[in-house]
Amino acid sequence: MSHSATSRVQEYIGDPVSDKPPVGRDKLEEIFQDIQDDLRYDHELNGCLNCGICTATCPAAHYYDFSPREIVQLLWTENLEGIYDAMQEKIWSCAQCYTCAARCPFGNSPGGLVMLMRETAIKHGMESAKNVLRPFSRVMLKLISTGNQLSPDMITPDGFADWGPNVAKVDAPLATLRKAIPMPTLHTTKTAWEVNLKTSVELYTIWEETGVLDSLETIDENLFDVILDIMDEKRDDYEDWLDDQDDDD
Ligand code: SF4
Ligand code: SF4
């Protein structure tokens, strides 16, 4: 089915009581094209019976105004306004558990399609993506600066209020406890484990080449600038370390 042949798309989509400018048809088509152009798209979407098995097994559908069947139908019928609407909120409800993919009689992966829509929302700098990802900025900073997503010094009652009473269980002398671990590289609370400079520098190259840093720049320019400084510093440290090795030889 070619979306360019559709005639049901409105010229503009927007909230009549909002100050935000309406989204033009060209933009809707561009967004859908980006989703459809991904190599995974044809693998994740093979057709849809509208049977609802995916929604019946979806934990997110149980708790939120979200239905994987609806998402798949929007894509399958190339409903550009509906796709854009779903990207404003609904797609962020998916838990990415892929129960739907295991059950769909058509071999679709609604969760995989949601992932493509999320990546496209990030690429287009949608507000929904910025809002959802904002709380993860300290995780991103930790990941880039230490190679770890989470370290013991991040586990605090303030940082993990969603753990409820369980967060009290980590209110322990972690610095002392970590020193009791036999491996010296774990004697710190600043990282979960030590990632060496060479690995860090290689990871930076992967993030650059795969577009991770471009996405970050679109979503949070300030965080992007901080992270670039950290990367430059680590790359300099790595060069110095290499020079030291040459001197020793
Ligand atoms: S995606 Fe699969 S399980 Fe879900 S409604 Fe379509 S055919 Fe049924
Ligand atoms: S991957 Fe998302 S859409 Fe699929 S069952 Fe899990 S929560 Fe639902």
Explain the overall architecture.
This protein starts with 11 loop residues before the first strand and ends with a helix. The chain has helices spanning 25-37, 41-44, 53-57, 59-63, 68-76, 80-88, 99-103, 110-123, 127-133, 137-146, 174-179, 197-209, 212-219, 221-248; strands spanning 12-13, 23-24. It is an all-alpha fold. It is globular and about 65 Å long. Strands 1-2 form a two-stranded antiparallel ribbon. It binds iron/sulfur cluster (2 copies).
**N-to-C order of helices and strands:** EEHHHHHHHHHHHHHH
The helical percent reads 40-55%
* Global structural class: mainly alpha
Overall radius of gyration: 23 Å
Largest sheet properties: 2 strands, antiparallel
| Total beta strand runs | 2
- Look at the structure and give the mean pLDDT: 88
Q: So how many helices?
A: 14
Report strand order across the widest sheet.
1-2
Oligomer: single chain
N→C terminal distance: 64 Å
Q: Say which molecules are bound, naming each kind only once.
A: iron/sulfur cluster
Instruction: Name the shape in a single word.
Output: globular
* % residues in beta strands: under 5%
Low-confidence parts lasting 5 or more residues at pLDDT below 50? 1-8
